[in-house]
Amino acid sequence: MKKINGNLTIQKGNTIDYSELEEITGYLSINSSADLKALKSVGGYLYIYSSADLKAPNLKSVGGYLYIYSSADLKAPNLKSVGYNLFE
């Protein structure tokens, strides 16, 4: 699966393999740890909730807001563009 047309929520216990996912047209919500190595863009908002961890080394753009709550962690060294604001 290379593209999701719509939104994606990743929660604790999620067993779906998203290792080839490159694009999400809607929002992405992370409630636990996720390793999205191939992800390049999120069309909508990106939410990373408390104590969650997102590793997205190829992520380049987020079309909407970027929310990082309390002790959440985002590892996206190639992130170049956020459409609106960053909230920490």
Number of domains: 1
- pLDDT averaged over residues: 93
What's the end-to-end separation, in Å? 30 Å
Radius of gyration: 11 Å
Unreliable segments of 5+ consecutive residues: none
Provide a descriptive summary of the structure in words:
This protein has 88 residues and is mainly β. The chain has one domain (3-87). Helices cover 0% and strands 38% of the residues. The chain has no helices and 13 strands. A five-stranded parallel β-sheet has the order 1-3-6-9-12, with no helix packed on it. It has a five-stranded parallel β-sheet with strand order 2-4-7-10-13, with no helix packed on it. Strands 5-8-11 form a three-stranded parallel β-sheet, with no helix packed on it. It is globular.
SSE arrangement:
Blueprint (H helix, E strand, L loop, with lengths): L2 E2 L3 E3 L12 E2 L3 E3 L2 E3 L5 E2 L3 E3 L4 E3 L5 E2 L3 E3 L4 E3 L5 E2 L3 E2 L1
Parallel strand pairs: 1-3, 2-4, 3-6, 4-7, 5-8, 6-9, 7-10, 8-11, 9-12, 10-13
Q: Could you list some keywords that capture this structure?
A:
0% helix, mainly beta, five-stranded parallel sheet, 88 residues
Short synopsis of the structure:
It is built from no helices and 13 strands. The strands form three sheets. Strands 1-3-6-9-12 form a five-stranded parallel sheet, with no helix packed on it. Strands 2-4-7-10-13 form a five-stranded parallel sheet, with no helix packed on it. A three-stranded parallel sheet has the order 5-8-11, with no helix packed on it.
